[in-house]
Amino acid sequence: MGAQGDGQKRAGSRGRGVAGELSQAAGDWIFYSSYGKPDTTAEVAVVNGNLWKALPAVKDGHGARVDDEVWFLGLGPLGAMDVQSDLEQLLS
Fold it and tell me: Which own/partner contact pairs does 65-70 have at CB distance under 8 Å and 24+ positions apart?
Protein backbone atom coordinates (compact mmCIF):
# COMPACT_ATOMS: atom_id res chain seq x y z
CA MET A 1 0.00 0.00 0.00
CA GLY A 2 1.24 3.43 -0.60
CA ALA A 3 0.50 6.59 -2.43
CA GLN A 4 0.03 5.03 -5.85
CA GLY A 5 -3.30 4.25 -7.46
CA ASP A 6 -4.47 0.81 -8.52
CA GLY A 7 -3.44 1.36 -12.14
CA GLN A 8 0.11 2.33 -11.32
CA LYS A 9 2.99 -0.08 -10.90
CA ARG A 10 5.99 0.54 -8.72
CA ALA A 11 9.43 0.22 -10.18
CA GLY A 12 10.55 -3.36 -9.82
CA SER A 13 7.12 -4.76 -8.99
CA ARG A 14 6.80 -6.44 -12.41
CA GLY A 15 3.03 -6.40 -12.12
CA ARG A 16 2.90 -8.74 -9.12
CA GLY A 17 0.10 -6.77 -7.52
CA VAL A 18 -0.66 -6.53 -3.82
CA ALA A 19 -0.09 -10.24 -3.10
CA GLY A 20 3.35 -10.19 -4.71
CA GLU A 21 4.36 -7.04 -2.88
CA LEU A 22 2.93 -8.22 0.43
CA SER A 23 4.63 -11.60 0.26
CA GLN A 24 7.99 -9.78 0.34
CA ALA A 25 7.22 -7.76 3.45
CA ALA A 26 9.53 -8.72 6.24
CA GLY A 27 10.75 -7.05 9.37
CA ASP A 28 10.19 -6.78 13.07
CA TRP A 29 7.58 -4.08 12.44
CA ILE A 30 5.44 -3.15 9.46
CA PHE A 31 4.12 0.39 9.24
CA TYR A 32 1.41 0.81 6.64
CA SER A 33 -0.93 3.38 5.20
CA SER A 34 -2.80 4.19 2.05
CA TYR A 35 -3.34 7.44 0.28
CA GLY A 36 -6.62 8.88 1.48
CA LYS A 37 -9.35 7.24 3.49
CA PRO A 38 -8.84 3.48 4.01
CA ASP A 39 -12.40 2.66 2.93
CA THR A 40 -11.72 4.17 -0.51
CA THR A 41 -8.67 1.94 -1.10
CA ALA A 42 -7.85 -1.75 -0.88
CA GLU A 43 -6.36 -1.27 2.59
CA VAL A 44 -9.24 -2.88 4.50
CA ALA A 45 -9.22 -5.93 2.23
CA VAL A 46 -5.45 -6.28 2.51
CA VAL A 47 -5.20 -6.01 6.30
CA ASN A 48 -8.11 -8.43 6.72
CA GLY A 49 -6.64 -10.92 4.25
CA ASN A 50 -4.82 -14.16 4.96
CA LEU A 51 -1.53 -12.97 3.45
CA TRP A 52 -1.40 -10.01 5.82
CA LYS A 53 -2.32 -12.11 8.83
CA ALA A 54 0.41 -14.62 7.96
CA LEU A 55 3.22 -12.05 8.13
CA PRO A 56 5.44 -12.73 11.16
CA ALA A 57 5.42 -9.09 12.32
CA VAL A 58 1.62 -8.97 12.14
CA LYS A 59 1.36 -12.27 14.02
CA ASP A 60 3.52 -10.68 16.75
CA GLY A 61 1.21 -7.66 16.93
CA HIS A 62 3.75 -5.44 15.18
CA GLY A 63 1.70 -4.13 12.27
CA ALA A 64 0.75 -0.48 12.74
CA ARG A 65 -1.27 1.87 10.59
CA VAL A 66 0.34 5.28 10.26
CA ASP A 67 -1.03 8.59 9.03
CA ASP A 68 -0.14 9.07 5.36
CA GLU A 69 -0.32 12.85 5.80
CA VAL A 70 2.57 12.64 8.29
CA TRP A 71 4.60 9.68 7.05
CA PHE A 72 4.40 10.27 3.31
CA LEU A 73 3.48 13.91 2.85
CA GLY A 74 5.14 15.49 5.91
CA LEU A 75 8.28 17.21 4.72
CA GLY A 76 11.31 18.71 6.32
CA PRO A 77 12.41 18.71 9.93
CA LEU A 78 8.88 19.17 11.32
CA GLY A 79 7.60 16.19 9.34
CA ALA A 80 10.57 14.11 10.50
CA MET A 81 9.86 15.07 14.11
CA ASP A 82 6.23 13.98 13.71
CA VAL A 83 7.33 10.58 12.37
CA GLN A 84 9.82 10.27 15.23
CA SER A 85 7.08 11.06 17.73
CA ASP A 86 4.86 8.37 16.17
CA LEU A 87 7.70 5.85 16.34
CA GLU A 88 8.36 6.62 19.98
CA GLN A 89 4.70 5.92 20.78
CA LEU A 90 4.39 2.82 18.61
CA LEU A 91 7.62 1.20 19.73
CA SER A 92 7.33 1.88 23.46
Answer: 65/31, 65/32, 65/33, 65/38, 66/31, 66/32, 66/33, 66/90, 67/33, 68/3, 68/33, 68/34, 68/35, 68/36
pTM of the predicted structure, to 2 decimals: 0.70
Expressed as residue numbers, the domain containing 22 is: 17-65
pLDDT tens digit sequence for 27-64: 899 999 988 888 888 899 989 999 899 999 999 999 99
- Residue 59 included in any domain: yes
Question: How many independent structural domains does the chain possess?
Answer: 1
Q: Is residue 71 part of a domain?
A: no
